[in-house]
Specification:
The complex is a heterodimer of chains A (306) and B (402). Chain A has 306 residues and is α/β, with parallel strands linked by helices. Helix content of chain A is 34%, strand content 23%. The relative contact order of chain B is 0.09. The chains are: A alpha/beta (306), B alpha+beta (402).
């Protein structure tokens, strides 16, 4: 098993005819991901040429789901239209029995996201990952299911779950697991925006219940209190070992570090507080991302898994 | 994006929030004319900068750094006092709790009609990331440092949340008025103010509105004596007027230039320049430099769409900083290809005449090719395969150790 997506998941791409959509659709197809089609309003009936196949374009998500039976919709729609794309996908999935929405788009207005997340929350069978995230990947035996922009080749199928707010830092965590001979069950980038869909706790809960996953690497960053809340949840509910890192120990208060959500304000959301919460919850802490591999080995040994 | 108090009050007025009459001034003459035009014996003379704590701030002479006046917001009881205060404020450096020791030059002044104050309150609207909607926060402890109130007496801060789709519920607004101990027309005033502000928050894509103090006048009117408003930059495409309200002199020139090239840059106080792809990895790179005993000179995320041009700009920005004694490039190639970064780094270094040590760490897409490009160039560049090793190397090199 894995969480939320598996090797056979069928992926629809909203915005497939755009530059980003076509580029990443190609990369996904190269990684053996089952891309079944795309959606671009007004371009229904066209086809997009991917390396291994030609996929149809639909005018609406609903039509795309009817024709392809997709269970994942991946959004590469420009920021000003992205929230509407999320809402469209949520409505369509809710009607057809559920599904996963992954929104890669960066720079969506926060008030748009408040509305989009409120809609997704009304659809119990629908999950949203992102926005402003690298996506989600479940490595398989040959390639795998890659619903996002991460480089597929750095991954390998394995037993470590990874969840992170940051993109390239997720890749760093993947490389760290590989450096100690461990592969990944599923890697989820939840994104660095202040208002988003899936959070740390959703991911940890899913990893806890996933038989393939034996341990989790969790990467947070400054801002908000999601890490503290996750740590609280871990202390009460998690039996599998977790290795944690928080980026931004050196960030000054009041300065936004790239991500809209990565800001220490009113003395809250510092890395020191988050590391402390991790430690109090029994999470194995790596102070340096280059240490994640070694700390993971220690955690696995303590649990009798190595 | 932040705006000045005087601009915030224009928006408040449009939204139907009660404010005192006031005039935006750039010169001492403006201030005197403003005093003459306002039908008020007592006026507030207020420094306009994009930072809080103005009232308790101190004004210094730009050249001599001598203290000119305590307090960036003054109550003037005569025309002479207006002149004196305006003279002490315009063109001076205002240092507040929020500006840091370098302070900010005051180029704008607001002269506002005085107001009788029966009580001061605090009011703010902001996005609550956990509740995923707009939070309205108010307290009877107005005029104070609200962070201190939150820490010492959190029960003195009252909170209500708007509905993500339906907006503010009147019942919640009435409850807030009760919690603040308001009655009669003050209560009605507050409810209508909360309605106006939540509407404005959504219509203008605000990220924060803060009023400290919000006052109850002797006659029971609820008046916004302050206005701190900021907007969501991501929504600027639907608000062309934002550009007109933007005061570039309040922002760091280099951060604007970086932004225009798709870079995200924040200047810090250390000596090791960083060039990284991804915000999280950029922060982590800074953290690791610090772990090895160095100090990062900046946060710099070149983003996923970096090109040769943007990397050259990024290099230029790092090298402009006189404190920089070494540069760490940390790239985990995903969409970005390490060999493209390698060629851009070489070109930028040659173009800009690189004089400080450079350590490059490549991983991910085309990292082998990237390293090869660097190994075969004339540049004195050190390569590493892990972040820790690279950080340690650049820290040692800036200390003159190999």
């Amino acid at each position: 098993m894995s969480i939320w997506i598996h090797e056979e998941s069928k992926v629809l791409i909203q915005g497939i005819t755009g530059k980003q959509g076509t580029f990443h659709g190609t990369k996904m197809d190269e990684y053996n991901t089952n891309v079944v089609g795309g959606v671009t309003p007004g371009k229904g009936g066209q086809f997009v040429e991917l390396p291994n196949k030609k996929v149809p374009v639909f005018n609406t998500v609903s039509e795309g789901l009817d024709e392809t039976g997709a269970d994942v919709s991946l959004i590469y729609v420009p920021a000003r239209f992205a929230a509407a794309a999320i809402i469209e996908a949520a409505d369509a999935f809710q009607e057809k029995g559920g599904g996963l929405i992954v929104c890669i788009t960066e720079g969506i207005p926060i008030l748009d996201m408040i509305k989009a997340v409120a809609r997704v929350d009304q659809c119990p069978e629908v999950r949203l990952i992102g926005p402003n995230c690298p996506g989600i990947i479940t490595p398989g035996d040959v390639g795998g299911c890659k619903a996002g922009i991460m480089p597929g080749f750095i991954h390998a199928k394995g037993r470590i779950g990874i969840v992170s707010k940051s993109g390239t830092l997720t890749y760093e965590a993947v490389a760290q697991t590989m450096s100690v001979g461990e592969g990944q069950s599923t890697c989820v980038g939840i994104g660095g925006d202040p208002v988003n869909g899936t959070g740390f706790i959703d991911c940890l809960d899913a990893f806890e219940n996933d038989p393939q996953t034996v341990a989790v690497v969790m990467i947070g960053e400054i801002g908000g209190s999601a890490e503290e809340e996750a740590a609280d949840w871990v202390a009460k509910n998690m039996t599998k070992p977790i290795v944690g890192f928080v980026a931004g120990s050196t960030a000054p208060p009041g300065k936004r570090m790239g991500h809209a959500g990565a800001i220490i304000s009113g003395g809250k959301g510092t890395a020191a507080e988050k590391f402390k919460a991790f430690e109090n919850a029994g999470i194995y802490v790596a102070r340096d991302p280059s240490e994640i591999g070694n700390v993971l080995v220690r955690a696995l040994k303590d649990a009798g898994l190595r | 994006m932040n705006i000045h108090e005087y601009q915030g009050k224009i928006l408040f007025k449009q939204a139907g929030v009660k404010v005192q009459d006031g005039v935006h001034c750039k010169t001492i003459d403006d201030a005197l004319n403003a005093y003459d035009s306002l039908d008020s014996k007592v006026v507030a003379v207020k420094s306009q900068i994009h930072a809080g704590g103005r009232g308790k701030g101190s004004l210094y002479d730009q050249e001599t750094d001598n203290l000119v006046m305590e307090g960036g917001v003054k109550i003037a009881f005569s025309r002479d006092e207006v002149e004196q205060y305006a003279r002490n404020i315009i063109g001076r450096k205002l240092v507040t709790k929020q500006t840091g020791s370098s302070g900010k030059i005051v180029n704008n002044l607001y002269v506002e009609a005085g107001c009788s104050i029966a009580h001061e309150y605090y009011l703010a609207l902001l996005v609550d990331r956990e509740a995923k909607t707009i939070l309205i926060m108010a307290s009877t402890e107005g005029g104070m440092d609200i962070e201190e109130v939150a820490e010492k007496t959190p029960e003195a801060i009252h909170k209500i949340w708007t509905h993500p789709v339906d907006g503010l519920n009147e019942k919640d607004a009435l409850e807030m008025a009760d919690k603040l101990g308001l009655d009669g027309h003050s209560k009605q005033d507050l409810v209508s103010m909360l309605e106006s502000l939540s509407r404005m928050f959504i219509e203008k894509d605000c990220s924060m509105i803060e009023i400290n103090p919000l006052v109850k006048s002797d006659s029971g009117d609820m008046i916004a004596l302050d206005a701190k408003v900021s907007f969501d930059d991501n929504a600027s495409f639907r608000h062309p007027w934002m550009e007109e309200m933007r005061d570039y002199s309040e922002e760091e020139e280099v951060e604007i230039r970086a932004h225009d090239h798709g870079l995200s840059y924040v200047k810090l106080d250390g000596n090791i320049g960083c060039l990284v792809n991804g915000a999280g990895l950029a922060m982590a790179s800074m953290d690791v430099i610090k772990l090895y005993g160095g100090e990062p000179a900046n946060f710099l995320d070149i983003g996923g769409g970096a090109t040769k041009e943007s990397i050259t700009t990024a290099f230029g920005i790092i090298l402009e900083d006189e404190n920089v004694e070494g540069i760490l490039v940390n790239i985990f190639g995903g969409i970005i290809q390490c060999d493209m970064v390698a060629r851009s780094v070489i070109e930028a270094s040659n173009e800009l005449g690189l004089q400080v040590p450079l350590v490059v760490r490549f991983s991910g897409t085309n990292h082998v090719e990237g390293k090869e490009v660097l190994d075969h160039c004339d540049l004195d560049v050190h390569t590493s395969s892990t972040l820790a090793e690279a950080a340690e190397k650049i820290v040692n090199l800036t200390r003159g150790e190999e």
